[in-house]
Fold:
Amino acid sequence: MSISSEERSSERWDDDGGGSTSTAVADYFTPKKFQIPELKGISQKNIKEHLELYAGYVKFSNHIVNRIRELPKNDDTEYELSLLQRRFAYEHDGMKNHETFFEQFEGGPAECTTGGPFLKQVSRDFGTIDGLLTCLKSISMTRGVGWTMLYYCHSSGHLFPQWVDEHHIGLLSGPKLIFALDMWEHAFVYDYATSEKKKYIEAFFQNLNWRKVEQRFGK
Structure:
C-alpha cells in the first residue's frame, strides 16, 4: 500500500508556482525536530514517511508566502493571489496540526496527572477519562480524511471535541487546540489497511503522552 497520489501532489507542486522563480526566498517557517521513541503498533517506516509529508507542508507554506510577496498587486495577478491565499490555510494548518500530533509521542506514553487540572476538567465535561476516550475514538471513525481535535475554550470553561475536514475546514476560532489525531490515511497506511483504521486509533492512544495535552491545557 502507498500514500495516495492526491496526498503526494502537494509535495510535487512546482516550486515556481507555475511562473517565475522567486529571487528572494525567505523561510518564514522551519521544520521542527521531534524526539519520537519506538512506538507500539506504529512503525518507524510510517513515522518516517509521515515526517516527510510534514516537511512538505512547511516547504509549501513558505513557498506560498514568498509567492504572494513577490507578485505585483494588480488586476493581472488578482486571481492567482486569491488562489494562493486560499491554499495557504491548507498548507499552514497541515504544518501546525502535524506539529501538535508528533509532539504527543515525545517522551513515550504517559497517563494524565492524577488529580491534575486537566483531569478535573475532563471529569466536569465527560465524567471520566474513559468518557473522553470514547468520544474521541468515535469522532475518529468519521468517514473521510481529516483530524480529531480537542479544544479548550477559556471563555466558556469547557472542552470541545471536534472533527476537522482535511487540515483547515472546521477549525474552531477562539478555543485553544490541545490535542490532535491525524486521521488521514497517510498516518497509518504502511501499518494498517484502510478498513483497519480502528486498530491505528487504538495504537495511537497506547502511545499518547497525555502530559503533552496537559501542558497545552495549562498554558
